[in-house]
Amino acid sequence: MNVFRILGDLSHLLAILILLAKMWRSKSCAGISGKSQVLFALVFSTRYLDLFFVFISLYNLVMKVIYLLCSYITIYMIYGKLRKTYDRENDTFRLEFLLIPVIGLSFLENYDFIPTELLWTFSIYLEAVAILPQLFMISNTGEAETITTHYLFFLGLYRALYLANWIWRYHTEKFYDQIAIISGVVQTIFYCDFFYLYITKVLKGKKLSLP
Amino acid sequence: EPDISDHDEL
Question: Which residues in B lie closer than 8 A to residue A49 (C-beta atoms)?
Answer without folding.
Answer: 4
